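Before we proceed, please read the two lines closing this message. Tell me what the token row says about the fold.
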Amino acid sequence: MRKKITFFTSLVAVIVAALLATVPLVPVQPATAQDAYAYTLNKVIGSYPVGHLNASTTAGSVAMIVKYVGTAQASGRVTVAAGGDLTFEVGASGSETGDTTVECPLSAPYAGVFTVANASCDTLGEVVDLLNASHNWRAVLIDGMRGDSSNNTIATIGATAATGADGLALYFDVPVALFDSKAILPNEYRNSIKPYLTGVNGTQLVANPYKGLRPALFRDVVTWTGTGTPLQYVYSVAVTNKAGVSVTAPAGSTEVVSTYFGAGLAASGTEKIFDYSPYGIWGRSGEKMISRTGPATTMTAINHGSYGIVVKQ
């Protein structure tokens, strides 16, 4: 038995050593260096490697994922117009019309149009709260945060079905949003709404979809093009998702954001590597970590790679 334990301990040590050699890890808050190292040593076998590279200004950072979950109609689709207004439609596939259960600002009869310059839905948090107050839609933020502007910050798309199991990703329009954002999440949490839904037919929101997970960020590699003096930030974000029962009084999800890191970038067009060695920046258990570049005065191009792990506890 002692030989087996020794072999397993050696195996874990080899894996950790290889990880440290290729992508240096480093403790920041809330863990001490010793705690972070012990945590990595004990848990690395049960972790997800995370590597997200965004070189697109309109198809890289996922502001939110939206899904039609209604049963009265066969299909739901979403349009993001030039200028950023959102339209939500339901009906037979290919013949959808404006959803009469949602609108912003509220003005009966509803027609599924969100005028995102309006103060009632000019943040991402307000948009998802209104959608989640309808029995037809569910929406969750991925790289976005509740206080982010929704006013013309979502990349334009034509009418696109949001009925698939994974939902429909809506991306930031980086030159308008003026930042790039990456949540340190396993791919199944970035590319699908499925981990965020539960209950009969998957129509209920998971209150804390990150329960049992803990993120760590090892490195950011950033080249941006534009003007201004954007910074590189790392946030730990505590999320509580809620679905309401009425668009006139949406329940409202909540979010608590802690800033873990902030530093200047290199000049426009110049790569900068943020090496959080030797142990990584560890987010709090049950929270998601977001690496964000910005805000800039203008941002015409971005190449942002974030690399870390998410540990299962």
Remarks:
- The first helix runs from residue 2 to 22.
- Residues 49-312 form one domain.
- The two ends are 25 Å apart (CA to CA).
- The chain is about 15% helix and 35% strand.
